[in-house]
Amino acid sequence: MKKWAVWLCSLLLLLPLVACGNDADQKEKTLTKVRLAEVTRSIFYAPQYVALAKGFFEEEGLDVELTTTWGGDKTMTTLLSGGADIALVGSETSIYVYAQGTNDPVINFAQLTQTDGTFLVSRKKIDNFTWEMLKGSTFLGQRKGGMPQMVGEFVLKQHGIDPHQDLKLIQNVDFANIANAFASGTGDFVQLFEPTASIFEQEGKGYIIASFGTESGRVPYTTYMAKQSYMNKNKDIIEKFTRAIYKAQQWVESHSTAEIAKVIQPYFEDTELDIIETVVDRYKSQGSYATDPILDEEEWNNLQNIMDEAGELPKRIDLDTLVDSSFAKKVMND
């Protein structure tokens, strides 16, 4: 075979590889980067990790860069300072920001969870629990002004317990250290998120005896939000982001807890698969995962009632002022 023929054959063999490489490069270039800050890493946010793991964001042309900012205050600071485009955090934070006065309010545009995500854990096993048992006890709660603590107080009052008079309420322990404080002997009861609650139960350190999510009803507990200025300039990104989340919500709704647990496991490498499955099942069975991204007026009013009951509501704010469900409604009707 002549040299030119050999050269031509080699070139033809290389062309598909080059084309594939160019296609990959082109795909990478066409994805729009979105910086997402989540308030904590939690199985409570399973649909979000499904959206990431199943490629739902990429299908919408988005390259979502996820950062865990550990705490509502830090998450909101990151969003307001331009360190993130979108934040996943409790809706109460948008009310706090608006009440302080701002020309660029933070707008809730898609809901991820629709109940509280904490559980009441007892140090001792209780077969026939009643809320009256908390009277006179030491209760290790969550951070003052945060949604978990406000829901906790709201539920206690619903059961005729004054959290500041009828028990010793501890709420000055940093969020990250609450579980360790209880494990070290602080408190008779503690309010914990999963998977810590289930891990404690598995290890015999505590026992889940009630769900604050079941007791408090539906609230926009964790939502996606962005500054109004960002949303005005990037309506297409907000719509695509919301569509990806809706796909994930529908996927979670239609698949088994075992399938969900397996998909999100890479985001919880230090947690055993059986624990992840237990937690997903617990949240799914009590309706914590929103099945669509719409934040409705009843939920919004319930949120403000809970904040008001805790003495943390700066002022009542209409739904339309801080909630924009137009993107959620659009993707649901597509």
From TrEMBL:
Gene3D superfamilies hit by this protein: Periplasmic binding protein-like II (3.40.190.10)
Instruction: Please state where this protein is localized.
Output: Periplasm
- Which keywords does the record carry? Signal
Residue ranges spanning the membrane: these are none
Q: In the record, which residues are listed under signal peptide?
A: 1-21
Keyword Signal in annotation: yes
List the InterPro entries hit by this protein, alphabetically.
SsuA/THI5
Q: Which residues form the SsuA/THI5-like domain?
A: 46-254
The source's superkingdom equals Bacteria
The family this protein is said to belong to: Belongs to the bacterial solute-binding protein SsuA/TauA family.
Protein name stated in the entry:
ABC transporter substrate-binding protein
The organism of origin for this protein: Geobacillus thermodenitrificans
